[in-house]
Amino acid sequence: LPAELRAAVRALVGDLDALLTALGLREESFAVGALSRVIAAELASYAPARNRRRTATNKASVVFVDRTLDLAGAVGHHGDNLAEKILSVLPKLPGHKTDVMVNMVELTALQTTDETRDIIAPGCLAQPNDPAAKALWESFMNLKQKEAVMEARRHLVEAASRENLPIRMSMGEVTPEQLSSYIQLFRNNLKALENHCGLLQLVLATVQTLKHPQTSKWDNFLAFERLLLQTIGESEMPSVLNQLLPMIKSYNKRTKDDYTCEDFLVLLVYMYSVVGEMKSGKELDAAEEEVKKALIKAICDDTEPSPLLQKIT
User: Fold this and answer.
1) At what angle do helices 47-55 and 34-45 cross, to 10 degrees?
2) Name one GO biological process term (predicted).
C-alpha cells in the first residue's frame, strides 16, 4: 500500500484496539474485500491487541466490509421497483435532486408535441397533501413493479368512481395505454382534476416511465448482469471483456437500442465491483487495452457528449 494509506490503516487499527480494550473484548475478525483483509490482518498482528486478547474476558465478532462493494448495488439493475425506475428515467425537477418532472400536457387540451412540453408547468412526485397519492408512492417503493402498477389502476378507478366518471374496470394486465385512457376521463372535469391532482401526477409518472425507451434498456442491463454473473463463475475476466468489445459502437453506428459510452462505464463499474481482486497477466492486459481503445474511440466520435462525459473527459 502507499505510505499514506499504510499510516491511515495503522491509525485505524490503533483506534480499534483502544475501543476493544475499553470494552474489555477479545475479537474474532472477519473480512469481506481486499482492504478489509489488510485491516483485519494488521489488527491480528498488532502487539498491544495480542496482549489484550490474552487477558480480555468477553468475546466479540468484528466484520470488516469494503465500501467499494456498495458500487455493485449502486450501478446494478436488480431492483424490480417502480419508484427506482421513475427516479432514474424521468428528467430531474429543476433545483431538486430527488424529484422528477412529470409532463402534464395529457391533462390538457393541448397537443402533445415537443413545443407544448414547456408550456404547462411540470408535475412532481412529492404530494404531501394528498393521502391517496402518498399511499400510492409507498406502494411504488415497497411493492414489485407489477403489483405497484395494479395499485395505480385501483387508486384511479376509486377516484373516478367517487367523481361519478364513466369508468369501466378491466381485469388482467395493466398497460400504460389503459392507465392513459383512465386519466383522460378526468381531463374535462375541473373539479375532479383539482380533487385528485396529486394522484394523477403519480399515475402520469408511471405511464411516462413505462413508455420510456430507457425502461426497456433497463431490462437489457438486468439480463446482461445476470449473464455476467454466470460467465464470471465459469471463465476469467478477459473472456468477459472480449464479449463486451463488439457491443462498444461509435456514435454514428449506434441505434437507440445500443449501449452508450455512459452505459458501458456503468457496466464496467459493475463488472469490476463484482469480480473483486484479479490476477493480472498478458491476456487480461490485452483485453483491457482493446476495451480502452474502443471506449476512447466511441467517446471521441460522440458529436453530442452528455454533461457527464464532458466532465470525465
Assistant:
1) 70
2) vesicle-mediated transport
Q: What is the spatial distance between Cα 20 and Cα 141, in angstroms, rounded to a whole number?
A: 39
In angstroms, rounded to a whole number, what is the distance separating the alpha carbons of residues 100 and 68? Answer: 28
* Closest among 120, 122, 100 to 109, alpha carbons compared: 120
> How far apart, in whole angstroms, are the C-alpha atoms of residue 107 and residue 176?
15
Alpha-carbon distances, residue 17 vs 23, 60, 67, 196, 300 (angstroms):
10, 13, 21, 59, 51
Classify each residue of 142-178 as buried b or exposed e, where b means 16 or more C-beta atoms within 10 Å of its C-beta: ebebeebbebbbebbbebbeebebebeeeeeebebeb
Q: Give, for 32, the enclosing helix (H) or strand (E).
A: strand 25-32
45-74 per-position pLDDT tens digit: 999 999 999 999 899 999 999 887 777 777
CB burial readout 255-294, b (16+ within 10 A) else e? eeeebbbebbbbbbbbbebbeeeeeeeeeeeebeebbeeb
28: enclosing H helix or E strand: strand 25-32
Q: Where exactly are the structural domains of the chain?
A: 3-69, 82-211, 235-312
22 vs 16: CA distance, rounded Å:
10
Query: For residue range 203-240, what is the model confidence (pLDDT) as tens digits?
Result: 999 999 999 888 877 778 888 888 777 777 656 788 88
